[in-house]
Amino acid sequence: MVFDFHFGVIQNKSALLSQTSAMRLYHILLAGLFFLIAACDNSQESTEQEPQSEETPKDTLAVKKISYPEEARFDDFAKFIAGSEGRSESELKALESSETWQEYRMNLDNLWYKTNDKLPAIKEWTAKELSDANSSGGTLFYPFSGADFLHADLFFPEHDHIVMMALEPVGNYADLNEKNKDGTLTPYLNGLKRAMNAILRLSFFRTIAMASDFQSEMDGTLHVLVHFMSRTDHELMYQEKVAIQPDGKLTNDLTSVADSAYVGNRFYFRKAGEDKVKTLTYFAVNVQNMAYHSRGGLVAKGLDERTDLVNYFKKIDIKSTYLKSASYLMHRETFSIIRDLILNESEYLLQDDSGIPVKYFDQSKWDLTFYGNYSFPISLFSERHQEDLKEIYLKKEMKVEPLPFGIGYQYRKGTSNLMLAKKK
C-alpha cells in the first residue's frame, strides 16, 4: 500500500502557529501515518478471501490469500470410479474387495491401454504448438464438450479455469455405499464403463448415446468428469452446485436464485504433487439463438433471451476456446450468437473443422495455423464441407503443419485436422 502525503511549508506570518507548534504537528502526522500503514499490513495478512472463481480478476491474486474448500470424500469417490485404490480411511475401501469393482477396474485398464499410448504424442505436440496459449493461466471455454475433461487437460494444462457446456445433464454426487446396498452399483459402473468406451475409442461423445446413458444410474456428466480427473493424476478437492445470476456472476447460495437459473457443478482440483488449485465449471445449457426442443419434450430458451448466460460468457474472461466434434453447429446461422461471442472474446482458438467455418476468421485480426489433413467431413455431415478450407490444405499457401495423432470425427491418425487461431 502506497501513501503519497504532501506536507506544505508551515509559515508563521499570521502568528496563528509558531514554528515549534508546526514541527510538533508534523511529527504527530508522521507518527499517525506509520500507525496506519502497520494496521493495513496486518489486516492483509490475516484476511482469507472466498475461493477464486472464473470471473476473479487476475491482478487480485497478488494481494489475496485464497482459501479453497476441501473434503477427502470427493477424491475417494473419484478414485473409486476411476478404478484406483483409495486411502485406507476411505468409506469406500470395503467395496474395493468386491468382485464387481475388481472386474470393473480390470475392464477400465484395458479401455485406457490404447489411449495411454496416444497421450505422449498429444502432450509433446501441445508443449510445442500451444506454449503461448498455455502461458500465464487464464480461462478455457469448451462449449459442445460433453464430459470431455481429458482433451481439455491435454491441450490446455496450464489454464486456471475450465468452463464446459453441453446438452448433457449435470449429474449429482452418488452415495456408492447406498448403491451397493440397494443393488444399483453394478448397473451404475456398467453405465460409466460404456461412456468411457466411447470417448476413449472414438475421442468424442455420441450425443444420442450419452442421452441414454445419463438417464440411467449414472445421471449426468459429473461421473465421467471426475473419472477423467482421477485418471489424469488429479486430486478432486471439492464439488459444489453453482448458479448463474442475471448479471452473469456465479453463486453457490441456491436459496436465493430464481427457478429459471442455470445450475451447474463446480469442481476444485489440483495436479498430484502441485499446490496450484484449478476449477472446472459445467453447465447443461442451450447455446443456439432460439429455444431448443428436446426429444423428451424439454424446452430451453436460447441466447436471444438468456441474457444471464450471455453475461456469464463475457465475465469469465476467456483466454482460449476449444472446439472438437461440435456437430458443425456453428456453421448454421441459428448459432451465430455463440459463434460471435467466441470470436470476440477469445485470444486463442483451437478447433477441428466441425467448429467455426474458416470464412469467419478475418485474417487481418487472426493468425491461422493449420495441422493434419482435410478433404471432406464424415458422411453424416457431408453438407458441411468447406471448399475454401480444402483449398488451404491443397495449395498450402497458408501454414500447414503435420498432426502426429488422430482426433475428432476423423479420429484415425493421418485423417484428422486442427486449426490454431491466435488473435493479433
Offer a quick outline of the entry.
This protein is an alpha/beta fold and 424 residues long. It is built from 11 helices and 13 strands.
How would you describe what is shown here?
The protein has 424 residues and is of the alpha/beta class. It has one domain (58-423). It is 34% helix and 17% strand. It has 11 helices and 13 strands. It has helices at residues 19-46, 72-81, 99-129, 149-155, 176-182, 185-202, 207-213, 222-231, 307-315, 336-345, 387-395; strands at 139-143, 161-166, 234-244, 250-251, 263-271, 278-284, 292-293, 299-300, 318-323, 348-351, 366-372, 400-401, 417-423. Strands 4-3-5-6-2-1-9-10-13-11-12 form an 11-stranded mixed beta sheet, with helices on both faces. It has a two-stranded antiparallel ribbon with strand order 7-8. Helix 2 packs across helix 8 and helix 3 (99-129) packs parallel to helix 6 (185-202). The longest helix has 31 residues, at 99-129. The model is unreliable at 1-53 and 56-63 (pLDDT under 50).
Question: What's the domain count?
Answer: 1
Q: Could you say which structural class the secondary elements and strand pairing correspond to?
A: alpha/beta
Quaternary structure type: single chain
Query: Biggest sheet: strands, sense, closure?
Result: 11 strands, mixed
Provide tags for this entry.
17% strand, disordered N terminus, 424 residues, 11 helices, alpha/beta, 11-stranded mixed sheet
Helix and strand topology:
Layout: H1 19-46, H2 72-81, H3 99-129, E1 139-143, H4 149-155, E2 161-166, H5 176-182, H6 185-202, H7 207-213, H8 222-231, E3 234-244, E4 250-251, E5 263-271, E6 278-284, E7 292-293, E8 299-300, H9 307-315, E9 318-323, H10 336-345, E10 348-351, E11 366-372, H11 387-395, E12 400-401, E13 417-423
Parallel strand pairs: 1-2, 1-9, 2-6, 9-10, 11-12
Antiparallel strand pairs: 3-4, 3-5, 5-6, 7-8, 10-13, 11-13
